[in-house]
Every structure is written in structure tokens, then in C-alpha cells.
Design a protein that fits this description.
A hairpin with a 4-residue loop joins strand 5 and strand 6. The strands form two sheets. This protein has a six-stranded antiparallel sheet. About 45% of the residues lie in helices and about 20% in strands. It starts with a helix and ends with a strand. The longest helix has about 50 residues. The mean pLDDT is about 80. The chain is elongated, with a radius of gyration of 34 Å. Helix 5 packs across helix 7 and helix 6 runs antiparallel to helix 7. It is α+β, with helices and mostly antiparallel strands. It has two domains: about 90 residues; about 220 residues, Phosphatase 2c, domain 1.
């Protein structure tokens, strides 16, 4: 026996169609009678009215059918185009993830961790990690102006330039100057990138860096959090013939350094907890054995819960954290 729901699905459209046809018939007959009375004609002389009404109805139905068919074709074309765009975005996101290096957990004298979470499928942040033949470490954290595909296009160039320069010199100022010149030559100032380029040495224990218009880093030492890596210059690729000066930070065993992009600082700037307070809590927990990777995760969780800048609804930005810990014996 057919279920009650199925029987209703069969007869309900038929009843509605019959009712609609009857309503049209009644309305058409009444309208025809009104028109005949209005023009003081007789039914036999004005039989053409029925033909005209039917002709108009057929023309209207035909037009609507053709219009619906054309609309359906356009919708299908748009769906296919959107599928193609989604596939391109997926491939672009995979390529971008491939640009991020595998940061080692440790090198002699240091422990490391880095994370990047894009605001959308394609982000504008990048970090890189390179070990020259002399046993030191070069690192870069950068944020390209703008968002989406235009910002992503420059990321590959930025990494290629950084790696190319790192094979030639470990001086952050020289690296920044050459990257900036190459970006300006290619893009004429837009887009540009803020960045910190850093060179880590175990002997002597120090960090040489350039801050190119980037948010300051933080240094955690003996439970105290202080802004660091503030000296610098203009963003990379913003102006022609940019020059930079390398600054130095003395490193001590137990120090923890944190580099971030502005998506981290802006996420927390309107909240009750600042990035410095989150870092202070992480520093205390690190003494109990927490790793740089756990510090990264702490900061990203705090930023994800942050309200973002005041007066900016639906704010989103890429969030990147790079953490190092100094662990050689004094």
C-alpha cells in the first residue's frame, strides 16, 4: 500500500493545477463579459476576445519559459565559474602552505616554533627559516599589505628573494635593502611588506635584526616581558633606494623571543587581556616545561578569542607567531 505521504505528494499537485485552471477559466469568462458590456457589443461579434486572451496567455507563458530557461543556463554557468574559482583558490592555498618551511624544534643553543593562520583561504603573512653554512640561523616574519590573491602573489617573490639573499650574506640590513629594491622594481610600491629579518648567533649570544615597518617583537627574560626588536625603517618595497641599519640584542640563557604580525596585536587591542599579559603567563608556564610550540598555541588561542580593533565589525586578519627560546648553558 502506498504511504499516506506519498499519496498526498501525488494528488496534491494535480488538485492545485485543476483549481488554478478553473480559477483562470472563471476569471477569463467574467472579464470577457465585462468587456462586452463595456463596449455594448454582443458575444458573437466579439468572439475574437477569447482568441486574443488565449494568444496573450500563450505568448506570456512562452516568454516566461524562455526567460526561465535562459536564467537556468546563466545560473549553471555561474556555478561552473564558481567551482573553477574555488579550485584555483584551493590550489593557491596549497601552494601558499608549501611556502612555509618546516621549522626545526631545535638547533644548537635554541628551540623554535612558528605558526600561521590565514584569515581566509589565502593569507598575506609568511615566515621563513634558513640555516647558513656557518651554523647560525636566519629568520624572517613578514606581512604583505592587502589581502587575498594580490597579497599572496608577492609571498612567493618574498621567500625567493630572502633565500637568494641569505645565500650571499647574513647581514639583515643588506638582506632587507636588496629585498626592498627588488620588490619596488617589480611592484612600484604596491603591494609592499612589513618584516623583521633576524640573524641568530650562539657565539656570541646575540640577535642582529632589521625591523622594516613591522610590529615590535617581545623578549621574555626572568619573568619580565618587554618590547624588543623595535629599531628599523620603512616597509620592504614601499619606496625606492630604501636603506636599513642592523640593530643588536644580547641574548641570555632562558630568554624567550616572540615575533608576531599585526593580526595578533590587533586581535587583542580592544580586549581586557593584552598580548604582553598573555606572554607573561606563557613565560611562567614555560618554567614548568612548556615548549615554544605551546607558547605559539597559547597566543593563537588568545587572539582567536580577541574582539579585534574597536569599531571594526567582522574584523579578520592573518595571525602569525614565531617563537625562539635560548637554552645554551651559561
Amino acid at each position: 500500500m502506498m504511504p499516506a505521504g506519498a499519496r498526498q505528494a501525488v494528488w496534491k499537485p494535480a488538485v492545485l493545477a485543476t483549481a488554478a485552471g478553473a480559477a483562470v477559466f472563471v476569471f477569463g469568462t467574467a472579464a470577457e463579459s465585462v468587456i462586452i458590456r463595456a463596449v455594448h457589443g454582443n458575444r458573437s461579434e466579439l468572439e475574437w476576445l477569447s482568441d486574443a486572451v488565449v494568444s496573450m496567455a500563450v505568448a506570456g507563458i512562452t516568454y516566461l519559459w524562455l526567460h526561465l530557461r535562459g536564467s537556468r543556463t546563466r545560473v549553471l554557468a555561474l556555478e561552473q565559474e564558481q567551482l573553477a574559482i574555488n579550485e584555483q583558490l584551493r590550489l593557491a592555498a596549497e601552494i601558499q602552505r608549501g611556502l612555509l618551511p618546516d621549522v626545526p624544534e631545535a638547533t644548537p643553543g635554541f628551540r623554535w616554533a612558528a605558526r600561521m593562520i590565514p584569515a581566509s583561504r589565502i593569507g598575506g603573512d609568511i615566515y621563513d627559516f634558513f640555516q647558513p653554512a656557518d651554523g647560525t640561523v636566519l629568520a624572517m616574519v613578514a606581512d604583505v599589505s592587502g589581502k587575498g590573491i594580490p597579497a599572496a602573489l608577492i609571498l612567493s617573490s618574498l621567500k625567493t628573494l630572502f633565500r637568494s639573499m641569505a645565500h650571499e650574506t647574513v647581514d639583515p640590513a643588506a638582506i632587507a635593502e636588496r629585498i626592498s629594491a627588488a620588490l619596488y622594481e617589480e611592484y612600484a610600491g604596491l603591494p609592499y611588506a612589513t618584516a623583521i629579518v633576524a640573524h641568530f648567533e650562539k657565539t656570541p649570544g646575540r640577535l642582529a635584526y632589521v625591523n622594516a615597518g613591522h610590529p615590535a617583537g617581545y623578549l621574555l627574560r626572568n619573568g619580565t616581558v618587554t618590547p624588543a626588536l623595535e629599531s628599523g625603517g620603512q616597509p620592504l618595497g614601499l619606496l625606492p633606494a630604501a636603506t636599513y641599519a642592523t640593530a643588536l640584542v644580547e641574548l641570555r640563557p632562558g630568554d624567550i623571543g616572540v615575533l608576531v604580525t599585526d593580526g595578533m596585536t590587533e586581535a587583542l587591542e580592544a580586549g581586557p587581556t593584552t598580548l604582553g599579559q598573555v606572554l607573561g603567563a606563557s613565560a611562567e608556564r614555560l618554567a614548568a616545561g612548556r615548549s615554544p610550540g605551546e607558547i605559539c598555541d597559547d597566543l593563537l588561542r588568545a587572539a582567536a578569542a580577541g574582539p579585534g580593533p574597536v569599531g571594526v565589525p567582522d574584523w579578520q586578519d592573518d595571525r602569525t607567531v614565531f617563537v625562539f627560546a635560548v637554552e645554551w648553558a651559561p
